[in-house]
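Example record

One chain of 95 residues, shown exactly as stored in the release files.
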Amino acid sequence: MVAVIATLEVKEGKEAEFEAVMKDLAAKTLANETGCGLYALHRGKGERTYVVLERYVDRAALAAHSSSEHFRAAMPRLMPCLAAAPKIETLEEVT
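Predicted structure tokens for this chain:
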């Protein structure tokens, strides 16, 4: 299993737009990617900090997500909402 923790800082006033795009992306990811078991948006410590928790059966499933049509379509809508580059941590499951 492969897990991803993505931390995103959103520009002030862009929270609702960001959440709407992410909710759509999460729904499409879970509906269309059999290799993805978790794709969930959380609000972090700051009011404009968000954390996406993702879990994939393997690295191939993660790569498939990154190249999926719904992911590629969401990126041009998400990037203008971000105040900084996303912080992405990829983890390999041990147990």
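Notes: Strands lie at 2-9, 36-43, 49-56, 87-92.
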